[in-house]
Amino acid sequence: MRAGAVPEGIRITKVGLWYILFTVLVAIAATNTGNNALYMVLAAMLSVLAFSGLVSRQNVRRLRVEIEPPDEVYARTPARVGFTLASRGWLLPRWCLLFSLGPGGPPLLVPYLPRRGETAGEIEIILPRRGLHELSAAHLASLFPFGFFRKGARYRLDVEVLVFPELFAAAACREDEAGEHGDEPSRRVGWGHELHSLRAFRQGDDPRSIHWKRTARTGSLVYMEREAEDSRRLAILFDNGAGSLAGAEAERFERLVSEAATAAVDHLARGWEVELVTRGRTLPFAAGVRQRWTLLEALALVEPVAPGAGALRSSDPRAAELRLGMAEPERRRAAG
């Protein structure tokens, strides 16, 4: 957000290249013929060329850039960053500015910026990987006044952005590993609300579950069995004990992180409580927006560590489990 500009050099455009070639031809013709009119045309063309270079340089000076990253930025997903571009010049407005974040970002055309004025808008960026990224500078280029040159300047920002893992479609997650848990009947006997079956009362049964209407009708004690309910809880057991990774293995690790993030966001949106267990850290069961942020932040910063002994375990043995790790596919095949 500093006002000082660092020049990035000047690049000639296709229009400028053709103009220079035509100027050279006029210079050759004037030299060979000695025609004063051609010398005057040549002088005018050179003056326009010099004027274009000076004005384009001035057009990217004395600016101020401020940006406001969005609350949530996901890897490989377009995100819109708010910006404010202000002119600190007293004399002249700015025209035809190309604004971008990062040397590879798509530029946004700012057609007019009044003197001592400012403009605000949004620019789209795509960050390729999760984790902490630094938007170090904003890049401004000018095509004004004739488009012969593209003069650039870099304005320092030093803004850090936490990039969350890429999210997949919820169906892409391995729901078979999570099971069909929730506050719904599980079709087995337990302590729930739904009726499972009626049977004769046996010694040791809870008298509170006697079906008194059926008992009065039949003349013998009838006991109500109820269906068990599983808690609406998901434990994501992410084994990041994978050691040093590179190449395809590193990409696979990133996909597993995205699977964990997708499952967490999807289940939290449906009202579940979600727990995250990794090597060295456990985020306990919770629900809501705060848990969503906490889980996404943890997964944005998770890194491979040295392999650990023993399997990761949930704090609630009744909760549904989603196990993710570099060795998980091999274990599933072995169990099958």
Explain briefly what this protein structure is.
29% of the residues lie in helices and 37% in strands.
SSE ordering: EHHEEEEEEEEHEHEEHEEHEH
Residue windows where pLDDT falls under 50 for at least 5 positions: 174-186, 330-336
Indicate the proportion of strand residues: 35-45%
Q: Under the CATH scheme, which architecture of the largest domain would be assigned?
A: Sandwich
Distance between the termini: 58 Å
| Helix share, percent | 25-40%
CATH T-level fold name of the largest domain: Immunoglobulin-like
Work out the number of β strands. Answer: 15
CATH superfamily of the largest domain: Immunoglobulins
Number of helices: 7
CATH class of the largest domain: Mainly Beta
Specify the oligomeric state. single chain
Q: Summarize model confidence as the mean pLDDT.
A: 84
- Count of separate structural domains: 3
The rounded Rg comes to 33 Å
Please summarize the sheet with the most strands: 6 strands, mixed
Shape: elongated
Q: Quickly give the structural class.
A: alpha+beta
Structure description:
It is a single chain. Strands 1, 3, 5, 6, 8 and 9 form a 6-stranded mixed beta sheet that branches. Strands 14-13-12-15 form a 4-stranded mixed beta sheet. Helix 1 packs antiparallel against helix 2 and helix 5 (248-269) runs antiparallel to helix 6. By secondary structure, it is an alpha+beta fold. The protein folds into 3 domains: 5-164, Immunoglobulin-like, CATH 2.60.40.10; 170-175 and 232-335; 186-229, no CATH class. The protein has helices at residues 14-33, 36-59, 175-178, 212-218, 248-269, 289-301, 328-335; strands spanning 5-12, 63-68, 73-74, 79-87, 94-101, 108-113, 118-125, 131-142, 149-164, 185-200, 222-229, 233-239, 273-278, 281-286, 320-325. Helix content is 29%, strand content 37%.
